[in-house]
Amino acid sequence: xxxxxxxxxxxxxxxxxxxxxxxxxxxxxxxxxxxxxxxxHDETRLREKVDTAEVVDERGQPITxxxxxxxxxxxxxxxxxxxxxRVPFExxxxxxxxxxxVVDKPHFLAxxxxxxxxxxxxxxxLRRDLDLPELTPAHRxxxxxxxxxxxxxxREVRRDYQSLFDQRRVTKExxxxxxxDPDLPLPATVRSRIVKERxxxxxxxxxxxxxxxxxxELLEVHGDAARYRLLPHTGKTHQLRVHMSxxxxxxxxxxxxxxxxxxxxxxYSTPLRLLSRSVExxxxxxxxxxxxxxxxxxxxxx
Length: 302
What we know:
Elements lengths: L17 E4 L9 H8 L4 H9 L3 E3 L16 E4 L14 E5 L3 E6 L16 H9 L5 E2 L8 E7 L2 H12 L4 E9 L8 E8 L8 E3 L5 E11 L2 E8 L6 H8 L27 E9 L6 E5 L9
Parallel strand pairs: 7-13
Antiparallel strand pairs: 1-3, 2-3, 4-5, 5-7, 6-7, 8-12, 8-13, 9-10, 9-11, 11-12, 13-14
Helix pairs in contact: 1-2
């Protein structure tokens, strides 16, 4: 996670303001002219926001109709969130103190606002429900992955905890349910080079030096299925899903690997059987070793 300046607008209704960077060059006379050219379908609302001083520059000064276009400068504004259907699963709180909020995220709920999931994200729900405007994720889980998710409560400690994950000083344990292959020797350590391109749904493995590593252990066999312990050493996008698929045992309910198939956004019938079971680290503020574990369990496939 990269450091960016604090926004000059506060969190509103659980949502951060949007930050937009002006292009390096352009022929627009004003900032508003540029915004309308970039978002032509939102022209009416953009003009309303400028009229009510809801669009500001880096210093928090309102953008007016006559504010000149300034290359490479930033403006901030609140975008209108999409109308969303509630994801019908609740967040369980595992731990809360002055620095941390640790939750047990359900399947199908996004960690942070993205795409069609804005209000229906763990971050926005928790900010609203607990009145914690400075709440920020220390790490993330995929929308389809359940389990332990850690947030910082105060901005003063945000970087301390995010650095734990950035610098791989966190022990993460996952569980998954997938096909049982009696001929697959386990435990096994999978190392590969994973690439995830912007705008492409799936990550994929390519030749080259490994940038990902996962240890896979067999925990329990249940007919044709098995429960596995997954210990990622790195944190590439979809890493565990890619590695399980590469072993020939894709995680049950995975509609991306090995082959993508479409699932309706409100189809909750087959959750991805992947769970963030526990997270352990030495607390950067207290020096105490802390471990948080999910109370959820993964169902066996029918």
